[in-house]
Amino acid sequence: MSTRPPSMRDVASRAGVSLSTVSRVMRGAPGVAPQVRERVRNAADELSYVVSRNASGLVTGRTGRVSVVVPYLKPWFFGSVLAGISEVLREADLDMLVYQVGDLRPQPGWTRTLPLRRNCDAVITVSMDLSEEECHRLDDVGVPLVLTGQRVPGRASVFIDDQAGAAGATRHLLNLGHTRIAYIGSRGDSWYSGSSMNRLRGYQAAMGKAGLTPWSLIKPPGHEGGEHAMGELLSDLDPPTAVLAEFDDIAMGAHRALRRSGIGVPEAISLMGFDNHEGAAILDLTTVDQSPADIGAAAGRLAVEITEGTRPRDTHLEMPTQIIPRQSTSAPRSVRGLS
Amino acid sequence: MSTRPPSMRDVASRAGVSLSTVSRVMRGAPGVAPQVRERVRNAADELSYVVSRNASGLVTGRTGRVSVVVPYLKPWFFGSVLAGISEVLREADLDMLVYQVGDLRPQPGWTRTLPLRRNCDAVITVSMDLSEEECHRLDDVGVPLVLTGQRVPGRASVFIDDQAGAAGATRHLLNLGHTRIAYIGSRGDSWYSGSSMNRLRGYQAAMGKAGLTPWSLIKPPGHEGGEHAMGELLSDLDPPTAVLAEFDDIAMGAHRALRRSGIGVPEAISLMGFDNHEGAAILDLTTVDQSPADIGAAAGRLAVEITEGTRPRDTHLEMPTQIIPRQSTSAPRSVRGLS
C-alpha cells in the first residue's frame, strides 16, 4: 500500500463516509455538513489524496470533459461566458477544454483541426455563428453540440432575441423624444454575423414603426469602428441627437470621439450601447444587458443534461435581455427646451 | 475499413505526404506549402477525417493536455493570458484545460479539488499568488508547475517587475512636476497580493527618493475601491494634483468619480493606472503596459519546454513593462502657470 497512490475509497474509509460524500467534498459541491466536510478534508490531507480524473472515466466510459470553442479569448464577453460554463461543469464534476479558433476560422476545414473526437463528452460553441455545414462537421465528432449566441432549428441553442433587444433600445430613444437616431453597426470583412443582422433589423423595424427613416453606418467591429462612425456623424449637415451602437465596444469608441471633441453626452448627443460591458458602467453608458455568465451557465447545464439524456438535443433556451438606463441618454435639447 | 474511423495515416497516404505534414496541417501550424496544405485538407475531407487526441497519447504516454489554473475568468486580464497560452499550446499540438478556482480558494485544501493528477502534462497558474505550501500541494500532482504573476525562487516563474513598474510610473508624475501624488492600492479581505505589495513599495520608494512623503489609500480591489478612494481624496483639505492607481480598474473607478464631480482630467488632477486594460485606451488613461498575452505565451512555451526536458524547471522569465503616456497626465496647474 505504501507506493499505490491513495484512492477515493481510502479517503472514504478513513473518514467513515460514503464514496459519493467524498466526491462531493472534493469537487466543492454543496449539501455536505461542515463537520463531515472537515473530516473528509482531514482524511484526504493525511493520505495526501489528490483527485484523479482517470478513475471516473474508466467507470462511465466518458471522458469527463466538455470542449468549449470560442472565436477569441481576449474580449471580455468570452471570459464571462467561460466563467458561467466553468462553474456548472465543476459542479457536475466535469473538466473544461477551451479552444480558441482565431485565425483558423477562415480556413474551410477549421473544424477538423480541433481534436474533439474521443476527447470530450460534449461541445459548446460560443458566438461562433456556425453555418449549417460547420454544424454538420461538428456532428461528425459524435458528441452533443450546444450552440450559444445563435438559434438553429433542431439544435440545442442558447441565445437572446437580438432583434427585440435592439428594437427596445431604439424605442427607449424614441420615447425620450429623439427622432434623429443613428445606428452604428458592424460587419466582418465580407459577412454580417447573425447577431449583427438581427440587431440592425430590430433598429430598422422600430424606426419604421415610428414612421422614421433608419440611418445606419456599418463599420468593422471594435472601438475604432465606433470612433470613425461618430466622426462621420459629427460632420453631417444635420447630426443625430441620439446614437445606438450595435454593441458596447462600438459605443465606447463613439464616446471617446465625443469626449475628444468636447461634445456633451447626453447634453448634445445621447449614446446607447448593447451588452452591458463592464466598461459601460464606467462610462455611465445606457445599454442592453445580456448577462453572458448566465448564458454560459445555461449552456453548461444544457450540455450536461443532453449528455445524461435528460434533455432533448433540440432544446432552445432564450435568455432575457434588459435595458439598463444610465446617464448617457436623456431627452434631446429641443424637447427639453419645450418642457 | 468501412467502419474503422479514418486515421492520420490514411490521410497521409491519400495525400501522398508524411504523417508529420498531416499533423502540421491539422493543427494549423505554419511551414507547409499552400498546395500541400490544400491536398492534405482535401484528402481529410474525402475521408471525413477528424483529429483524435487519443492516438498521440498512446504513443507518447502523455495526456496531450496542459491545465491552466486561474482565480477568476471574468476579468479581462485572464482572457488575454489564456489567449497567449492557447496559441502556443495549439502550435505544440496540446489541449488547454481551464480551472477557475473562484470561491474555493479560501478553503485550505482547494488544490486537491482540481482533478490534475494523470489528467495533464503540466500546470500553469495565473496570478494565483501561491503560498509555498500551495506550491508543494501542486507538486504532488507530479507534473511540472509554471507560475505566472509571481516570482518564486527555484520554480518556473513568468512575472513582471511590479516594483520597478510602479516606481517608473511615480517618476513619470514626479517628472511632470507633481509633488502631491496620492496612491490608491488594493488588498483582499485580510491579505495583500505579492503584486499589490510590490507596486505599493515601488511607489513608496520613488516618493522617498524624491524626498516626498508617500500618501496611500488601500481599498478593496475593483472600480468601487477607486471611486471611494477618489471621494476621500477630493474631500481632503489639500487634495493631490496627481493620483497613481495600482491597476487600471481602480483608475477607471477614480476616473468616474472625477467625471461625475466635473473635475477635469488632467487639468485639475492627473490620473495614471497600471496594466493597459483595453478600457484605459478608451479613457485616454496613461498607464503601464504589461502585455498579458505575451505573459501567457511565455508561460505556455515554458510549460512545453519543461515537459520536453529542454528547459530547466527553475527558469525565471521577467517580462518587460512600459509606460504608455496618454492624455490623462500632464504638468500640474502651478507648474503650468509658471511656464
Automatic annotation (TrEMBL), chains A, B:
Q: Which InterPro entries match?
A: HTH_LacI, LacI/GalR-like_sensor, Lambda_DNA-bd_dom_sf, Peripla_BP_I
Under SMART domains, the record lists: HTH_LACI (SM00354)
Q: Which SUPFAM superfamilies match?
A: lambda repressor-like DNA-binding domains, Periplasmic binding protein-like I
Record's keyword terms, sorted: DNA-binding, Transcription, Transcription regulation
Q: Under the GO molecular function aspect, what terms does this record hold?
A: DNA-binding transcription factor activity; transcription cis-regulatory region binding
> Where does the record place the HTH lacI-type domain?
6-60
Which superkingdom? Bacteria
- Keyword RNA-binding on entry: no
User: Which Pfam families does this one have?
Assistant: LacI, Peripla_BP_3
Name of the protein: DNA-binding LacI/PurR family transcriptional regulator
| Organism from which the protein derives | Nocardiopsis metallicus
